[in-house]
Design a protein that fits this description.
The structure is a homotetramer.
Chain A lengths: L3 E6 L14 H17 L4 H6 L3 E11 L8 E11 L3 E10 L5 E12 L10 H8 L23
Antiparallel strand pairs in A: 1-3, 2-5, 3-4, 4-5
Chain lengths: 154, 154, 154, 154
């Protein structure tokens, strides 16, 4: 399975007067993870949009367990969780890089839109790219890259 | 039942290059709704924090149905959904003011923290304030303001 | 002279861990003031963009005098300061609504761009609209609405 | 002279519907540069705040020359420009990492505040730390680290 692992420092502007990262920023961080995962899979989301393919968040579920603070080093691990013909679900774990534990667990569902912002099927090439995220690292693991009832494409 | 109804215009800075409101802003709008609901109930969240009482988002669930655009007039309706001894759940409906339909449905769970940011029970006075949100408008409806097995306080 | 006067409450998400509004938000508030001033002048910036006319900030100068806090009622007063063939300068005063004094003084220069994001002259109709901001309230004051050496259009 | 050079990718959430980075984000990026410059000088701004020393932006001047887009690699170069007993000025150049030219030039003045958010002199230790930013790289260049009429401390 191919994951994205992204590390960065908490920005001052991301804190609020509670002294911790404002919760809305976790969605922004997850978005960075998605961009990075797509890049690791060989795609560029920026390029996709230039081709008129958009992925828009339709649902988000977020559990905040601990607080991140300004200047903390945090890590976002992004994985593909579910792939359907018209949507894709990513899961994210946000954590401190020093092993202090999980900050947040997030899932987002994204639907595919065309240039008129109408729902459409994921293009075949994008579907193929996303399937790579589910491929086992070993050569034996070819189940997910073959289209079929167990490929995760529903 | 006491709700907050808040209306405002979408800011340019809230849009992203997809031409619509970036999804993270819905959490910010819901936060505005919470502040307003507390005010309508006779409390001030700003004042609560000065007293060392914090309400921190622990979970958020968001469904985005349609897109809001720059300069659109939007409305956030905020209601208390569930009240427990240590946490409170608010639900939000975000919609266009012109009846074009629901933009988003959101729920957030908030836990109570003390000035050291440790979990604590909701103070009795705050609990009492929040219960007012569940009081029926009519005088007969006094169930929710009396503590008991069916008050929504678990 | 036609000004925009916009009042709103400080959002929790706009604060940072210093306990006050993060300074970048003043630029967002000024942008809201610009939108509102254009509306008062009879134009819609959203509509302008749909016509392929963009106003992009090229310069900003900001002086922060006092701090705004969460839930404070603040007011942004926006005025046209200078009008040129290819750019326009707006000035802003941000203040508490309760007379506690000025929070910030800001100026932004905006250049006009076409749909390809290339600089262009302000369209005649927009120029005319913006000139209205400089018109004196009294009927005698017609100097600024007549094109000429002293109209502020350089 | 010690500078900070920070490189990162533009986030999707930082764009607006014009398709480029919203101008307010440049102030956020500059803030990241300040944090990094202080770290390179051996200080931690997070640590300073825990000691009750705050640096608050009092003035900002920003010139935007070109636009950055989503997923672009950008670089912020931060330098100390002026040091006074009660304030410090930083200058920033934001640019594409691929040599496409300068995106923005920014300057911010920051004043020193105590834990009650009242203005105070920069602590001697912080002043000493900041002076390091002005030290020439060569051993001959010791003018700026010796207090005196030409040290930039006014």
């Amino acid at each position: 399975m191919i994951e994205s692992v992204l590390e960065f420092r908490v920005r001052y502007a991301e804190t609020d007067q509670m002294g911790v990262v404002h919760h809305a920023n976790y969605l922004v961080w997850c978005e960075m993870g998605r961009t990075d995962l797509l890049r690791r899979l060989g795609a560029s989301y920026a390029q996709l949009e230039r081709q008129g393919i958009f992925l828009a968040v339709s649902d988000a579920r977020m559990r905040l367990r601990r607080s991140a603070r300004y200047d903390d080093l945090v890590r976002v691990r992004t994985a593909l969780r579910r792939l359907r013909s018209r949507s894709v679900t990513f899961s994210y774990v946000v954590e401190h890089t020093d092993g202090r534990g999980t900050l947040a667990e997030v899932e987002t569902d994204l639907i595919c839109l065309d240039s008129a912002r109408s729902p459409r099927k994921l293009p075949a090439a994008l579907l193929e790219t996303l399937r790579r995220a589910r491929a086992p690292a070993s050569v034996e693991g070819t189940i997910d890259v073959v289209a079929g009832p167990n490929t995760g494409v529903e």
